[in-house]
Amino acid sequence: MPRVRVESFTVSLDGYGAGPGQDIDNPLGAGGPELHQWAFPTRTFQRALFGADGGTTGLDDEFAARGFENVGAWILGRNMFGPIRGPWPDLNWRGWWGENPPYHVPVFVLTHHARPPIPMEGDTTFHFVTGGIEEALDRAREAANGMDVRIGGGPHTIRQYLRAGVIDELHIAVAPVLLGGGERLFEGVDARALGYKCVRFAASEKAAHVVLRHERWEDA
Amino acid sequence: MPRVRVESFTVSLDGYGAGPGQDIDNPLGAGGPELHQWAFPTRTFQRALFGADGGTTGLDDEFAARGFENVGAWILGRNMFGPIRGPWPDLNWRGWWGENPPYHVPVFVLTHHARPPIPMEGDTTFHFVTGGIEEALDRAREAANGMDVRIGGGPHTIRQYLRAGVIDELHIAVAPVLLGGGERLFEGVDARALGYKCVRFAASEKAAHVVLRHERWEDA
Description:
2 copies of one chain form a homodimer. The first copy, chain A, is about 20% helix and about 25% strand. Chain A contains 6 helices and 11 strands. Chain A is globular and about 45 Å long. By secondary structure, chain A is an alpha/beta fold. In chain A, strands 5-6-4-3-7-1-8-11-10 form a 9-stranded mixed beta sheet, sandwiched between helices. Chain A has helices spanning about 30-35, 45-50, 60-65, 80, 135-145, 155-165; strands at about 5-10, 15-20, 70-75, 105-110, 120, 125-130, 150-155, 170-175, 185, 195-205, 210-215. The interface of A and B includes residues 172, 196 and 201 of A.
């Protein structure tokens, strides 16, 4: 049965999943790039984001790689798609990733402002969903066609899906960094009461990796 | 120069440093014992808390052991001393730890309710400080007589001293556990802006250990 997954989501020691002050020059917010030092050098990220050969292997790469396995569709909060808030001033913004984004499957972007789909190179198409998280998940599941749906973030989007009880598994990386402020992943979310528990814990020199799984999969 | 240290302070994946619902049967709050699975089996804790031989060695024990090195006095919030709130009904409560507590130095307990000192076996004496965190630190520093002062907790006490800018170093263990609720260590505290950064990161199979140091010690 297909799953709904969060992968490679990194939080700081003080619990923040994104730094404060995101803008066009700081897609990850202030301090955000420090969060992802475990991921950027990996072979998986080098290939997916930069089309580069090489990169590190080992535990960090293992976790980076599982995030791309068996993913048939993505869901992104609007802030992950870009820095623009409110109505689209024009149709020029096409995401942070250039003409060939690292998704290669349909991507559903949550927004309050309708916009036609954007077909990109490499089989990524951005779809804009104004009907809320349920509609986005329904459409993503259908598009995934039996594969899993990956919820990319940000923290606010993940929290909405956690509260809705539909996320099956989360890989979270804890980075040895203090952000001091920003958006907390678990703000106002009681993940224990919602039925999640830690089923894997392993650390590299750059991050501690945990896998949280919903209890409905306990025997899986 | 003597330092003010926090040691072996454990937080959950969702950032809580103590579980909800502390009472006489649950000194660590609901779920609290799960937090400390990295510490209890270590040689250091077995010896210090239970007077037992044996216990595990390795990274967890190394971090447990550093918490007792060069400590000349402790400061505890009242909830770490016991479950009683408000005025002392009598003088019968003498801490969670029996007649020979694991401190073996003067311990300063923050409270709003005065009480005579309690000399215990093994050189621990509990002193009750009603003048606030500065008075407690002054007295602890004097009692430590050139050694370090360890702030035991709980989260509220540590946050007060963090905001006051007097903590030099914190060892924090992140346990692969969800508590879902309780008291957050970094609630309303911007540790980055206060001048802390991570200077060590290492993980066992049971916890990720980090050392945060204030920037005034950067060259130490």
